[in-house]
Each structure stands twice: as structure tokens, then as C-alpha cells.
């Protein structure tokens, strides 16, 4: 049985109990946009391992995150619920104390008899976002940056002073994470390598139950620290900064301009100090470092006893701007922020895989894994299983939706990107004619019906913002939350 047959046969097999349930490896990266070889976002990027994975699996070439920011995106993937359902829109909102009854993806696998393990950044990486009762075993994220060893956010990390020469990019007076360079650390001692080691050790064990293993790499999230050999892959003279236009924001509503303006100082600093290219190069290096670690985990799986009965899901939580729309972060609703790599592969076949070009959402991961593994349903999910699309390239799909704030969504079909903000202001881009999204067509009266059709797919209502984490007393030792009295 080849991989494609394996994927399409799984739900039927499991419905009749004729096969042992497959194992699952979820492999994620952080802030990786479409700058991978198989998606073509940056010609010249070196991602041989991710490209190989795409060839050996099903590549969803037009996948979008459910929210363009770490915590809301990961919460959506792992709860199966949109930000507009949970009220979790930013990086300072806990899931557990606000939604104590939500059954997360790892919990659902545990309840279905799986051995469930994780390492690295799966949920958001700050203490309080990853309740340990979701896992049979978990290895916490290790950080490379002294800034990330704050005792209040990361009590499991040893606090160390910043090393000499830090920040390495020579730009003083910035938030510690906005840095790039090479650490005086052997390659195998970078923080992400601890997650890789956990995964390879785990896959080498004898397992008596089906397993769900989540491994979350930090790269290419800032700070962009990578071993020198990955910088050497990209001679600075050859590095290209993205095509931009000085007046690109002129036709964007005020609320869109505000999103583009988030941490604008960092973009202006790299532009005005002549370090834009250096920054792009560091991002490319971090991508290739992530790719190398992806390769180690995939190789470990391929060489394990589980090569032929494991589903591998590869995803990024959100994209990343490299200066497009005068922005070097995420948290916008344009292509740069929402378009992410997403691959589903059932291992062990040499056959080339297929590509699905319909827009899909990472929100669909949870119901798809339920379907592929024949688990009991979770009726409370906002996403839809991708199994029909795995089986039939023409299976109909609704447009993908990504949400950033209450009543602030983008709706993406194969031709258009429609954005609506809380004050009802709009953007519309022709994705075919204008892939850089330079021309906002929302005011064109001929396109009113296009906007109306796309708007009909946006959530009708948005849950109110949940309280910020600072409104709770959180105790890491007992992993309990107590709401502070209202002032
Ligand atoms: Ca992220």
C-alpha cells in the first residue's frame, strides 16, 4: 500500500476496527511564512527537508493560519476553535481558566487511548499556556536568549546574564528578542535541539500503544540565532529584500494601517541603519536551521519502527513580514502573515505526493486528525476535516478565514482576499493579478458582489476579548489560576 492509498483508506479501516490506529507526529515551526522551496515565496531559500516532506506527502499550497499570531493561532489549532469563538485574540490570554471544559487536541488523543507526548513550543511558550495534564510526558521549551529566561515567564529556565557582545546585531536599546546572529554555542546545544533529541529518542522507543507526538521548533522566530553555517548559505550580496512600495499603505483603512504600524520602529531601524538585508539573511538562515532540524526528526521517523503507520503533520503557526507594508512582524491579515506551510504525510512511501491548491485553514488540523485516526468525534470544532480533499482534488471547500481581533477577519478564496475591520472598513485584493497586494480594490463598485459573497463566510459574531493573564495569579508549581479581585 502506498502512502496515498494509506491516507485515503484510513478512515474506512478504522471505522471497522480493521487496523491499529495510526500514530501521529505533529511537527511545527514558528513564524515561518511561505519562504520554503515548495511554496516559492523566496527563490533561493534552502529547505531541502521540508521540500522532501512535501514531495512525500500532500502539500496544501494555499494554507492559512486561523489567527496571525502565536498564542491565538496555536490556541485555535489545538482547541479547534476560532478566536471569535474563544475570545482569545492575543498573546496574553490563557485558554484553560477561561475555557476549563475545552478538550484540546492532545487531550482528545489521550481520551482515545493514545500515549501523548510533546516537546518544545506547542502551545504558547509562556508559563500558564500549556497545562501539563494534557500530556503523558512533556519537555518544556529551552531558550537560547537570556531575554527569554525571565523567571516570571519561564520558571523552568535557568536565568543567565546576557553574553558579551549581546545584542549581536549591533542595534542597542531594543526589546531583547529583536536580535540576530550566531551564539557561541555548539550547534547541538541550541535550545530547539533539545526538542529534536526528545523526538528522536521517543521515536526510537518501543511503544505498546499508538502515540501522538508533538514537536514544536522555535525557529525561525526572533531572535534569529543560528549556527554560522546557515548564514554562510546566503552570501549577503545575493540576498534580496522584498519588493515594496512607499505608498503601499495609502489605500488601506486606518485600522489596517494600525496593524502595519505595530512595532514600526523595528522596521525603520533596520531600513535606516542599512541592516534590512542583514535581517532578511538572518531570517533565511533561521529557516534553513529549522529545516535541518525538521530533517532530523523526519529521518528519525523514517528509520523507526513506525515509518509505515504514522501520519505526520507539518505546520507553521503564522507567517512573517520582512518589510512588506513597512512591517517586520506578523499580526496583520495580509498574505505575508497568514500564508503558511502545511503538509500532511503518511510516511514510508517513495511515491511523489500531490498538491492541493484550495485555500485551507490550520483550524482544520484537529478534525482532520480525528478523521484520519478514527477517533471519537469532538462536536465542538469550528474547522472541517480535510479528508474529502485528500481523497478528491475537486472536493468543494469554503474559503479560509483568519481572524486577528474581534470583528476583524480576512476571507481567502483562490482569486480574492477580502479583509474587514471592526469599523466595517474593507480591503479587497486580486490574488492572481496582484500577489503583492499593492492595490486595494474594495472601493470598486463592480466588485461589491465579490465582497458580499466573501463577507458571508466571516464569523457573524465575535466573542469579547478574554481577560489578560495579568488579571490572574498563576502558580507554576501547582499549575493553578486564581482570578484577581476586580479593582
Ligand atoms: Ca508565531
Kindly summarize this structure in a few lines:
This protein has 487 residues and is an alpha/beta fold. 27% of the residues lie in helices and 16% in strands.
At CATH level 2, the architecture is: 3-Layer(aba) Sandwich
For the largest sheet, list the strands in their spatial order.
Answer: 5-4-7-1-9-11-2-12
Q: Low-confidence stretches at least 5 residues in length (pLDDT < 50)?
A: 1-5, 11-18, 348-352
Tell me, briefly, the overall form: globular
Which structural category fits the helices and strands?
Answer: alpha/beta
Percent helix, as a range, is: 25-40%
Give me the CATH fold name.
Alkaline Phosphatase, subunit A
Number of domains in the coordinates? 1
The number of E-state strands comes to: 19
**Cα-based radius of gyration, to the nearest Å:** 22 Å
Mean pLDDT: 93
Secondary structure topology:
Layout: H1 3-15, E1 23-29, H2 48-55, E2 58-60, E3 63-64, H3 70-79, H4 83-86, H5 105-111, E4 115-120, E5 137-139, E6 180-181, H6 191-204, E7 211-216, E8 224-225, H7 228-231, H8 254-261, H9 264-272, H10 276-302, E9 310-316, H11 335-338, E10 339-340, E11 342-346, E12 354-356, E13 360-361, H12 365-373, H13 387-391, E14 400-405, E15 408-412, E16 416-420, E17 426-430, H14 448-455, E18 472-475, E19 480-483
Parallel strand pairs: 1-7, 1-9, 2-12, 3-13, 4-5, 4-7, 6-8
Antiparallel strand pairs: 2-11, 3-10, 9-11, 14-15, 15-16, 16-17, 18-19
Helix pairs in contact: 2-10, 6-10, 9-10
Bound molecules: calcium ion (CA).
Give a structural overview.
There is one protein chain. The protein has a single domain (3-405), classed as Alkaline Phosphatase, subunit A (3-Layer(aba) Sandwich). Helix content is 27%, strand content 16%. It contains 14 helices and 19 strands. With 487 residues, it is an alpha/beta fold. An eight-stranded mixed sheet has the order 5-4-7-1-9-11-2-12, with helices on both faces. A hairpin with a 2-residue loop joins strand 14 (400-405) and strand 15 (408-412). The chain is globular, with a radius of gyration of 22 Å. 50% of the residues are buried.
Amino acid at each position: 500500500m502506498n502512502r496515498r492509498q494509506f491516507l485515503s483508506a484510513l478512515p474506512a479501516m478504522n471505522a471497522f476496527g480493521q487496523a491499529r490506529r495510526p500514530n501521529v507526529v505533529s511537527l511545527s515551526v514558528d513564524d515561518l511564512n511561505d519562504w520554503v522551496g515548495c511554496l516559492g515565496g523566496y527563490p533561493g531559500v534552502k529547505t531541502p527537508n521540508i521540500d522532501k516532506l512535501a514531495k512525500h506527502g500532500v502539500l496544501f499550497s494555499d494554507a492559512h493560519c486561523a489567527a496571525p499570531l502565536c498564542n491565538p493561532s496555536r490556541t485555535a489549532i489545538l482547541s479547534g476553535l476560532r478566536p471569535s469563538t474563544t475570545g482569545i485574540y492575543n498573546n496574553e490570554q490563557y485558554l484553560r481558566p477561561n475555557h476549563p471544559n475545552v478538550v484540546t487536541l492532545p487531550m482528545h488523543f489521550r481520551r482515545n487511548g493514545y500515549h501523548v507526548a510533546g516537546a518544545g513550543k506547542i502551545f504558547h511558550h509562556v508559563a500558564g499556556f500549556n497545562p501539563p495534564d494534557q500530556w503523558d510526558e512533556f519537555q518544556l521549551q529551552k531558550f537560547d536568549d537570556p531575554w527569554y529566561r525571565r523567571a516570571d515567564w519561564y520558571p523552568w529556565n535557568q536565568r543567565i546574564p546576557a553574553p558579551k557582545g549581546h545584542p549581536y546585531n549591533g542595534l542597542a536599546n531594543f526589546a531583547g528578542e529583536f536580535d540576530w546572529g550566531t551564539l557561541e554555542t555548539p550547534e547541538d546545544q541550541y535550545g530547539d535541539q533539545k526538542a529534536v533529541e526528545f523526538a528522536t529518542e521517543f521515536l526510537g522507543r518501543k511503544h505498546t500503544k499508538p502515540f501522538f507526538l508533538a514537536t514544536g521548533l522555535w525557529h525561525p522566530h526572533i531572535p534569529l540565532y543560528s549556527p554560522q553555517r546557515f548564514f554562510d548559505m546566503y552570501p549577503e550580496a545575493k540576498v534580496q529584500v522584498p519588493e515594496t512600495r512607499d505608498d503601499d499603505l495609502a489605500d488601506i483603512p486606518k485600522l489596517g494601517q494600525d496593524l502595519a504600524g505595530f512595532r514600526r520602529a523595528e522596521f525603520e531601524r533596520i531600513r535606516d541603519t542599512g541592516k534590512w538585508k542583514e535581517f532578511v539573511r538572518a531570517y533565511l538562515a533561521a529557516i534553513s536551521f529549522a529545516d535541518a532540524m525538521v530533517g532530523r526528526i523526519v529521518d528519525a521517523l523514517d528509520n523507526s519502527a513506525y515509518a509505515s503507520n504514522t501520519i505526520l503533520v507539518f505546520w507553521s503557526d503564522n507567517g512573517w513580514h520582512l518589510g512588506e507594508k513597512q512591517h517586520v512582524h506578523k499580526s496583520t491579515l495580509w498574505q505575508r502573515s497568514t500564508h503558511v506551510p502545511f503538509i500532511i504525510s503518511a510516511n514510508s512511501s517513495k511515491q511523489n505526493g500531490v498538491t492541493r491548491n484550495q485555500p485551507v485553514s490550520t483550524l482544520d488540523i484537529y478534525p482532520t486528525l480525528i478523521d484520519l485516526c478514527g477517533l471519537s468525534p469532538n462536536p465542538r470544532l469550528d474547522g472541517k476535516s480535510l479528508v474529502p480533499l485528500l481523497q478528491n482534488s475537486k472536493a468543494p471547500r469554503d474559503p479560509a478565514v483568519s481572524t486577528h481581533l474581534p470583528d476583524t477577519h480576512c476571507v481567502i478564496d483562490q482569486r480574492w482576499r477580502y479583509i474587514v475591520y471592526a469599523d466595517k472598513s474593507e480591503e479587497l485584493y486580486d490574488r492572481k493579478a496582484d500577489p503583492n497586494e499593492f492595490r486595494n480594490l474594495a472601493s470598486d463598485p463592480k466588485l461589491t458582489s465579490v465582497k458580499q459573497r466573501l463577507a458571508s463566510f466571516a464569523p457573524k459574531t465575535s466573542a469579547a476579548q478574554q481577560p489578560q493573564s495579568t488579571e490572574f495569579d498563576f502558580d507554576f508549581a501547582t499549575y493553578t489560576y486564581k482570578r484577581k479581585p476586580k479593582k
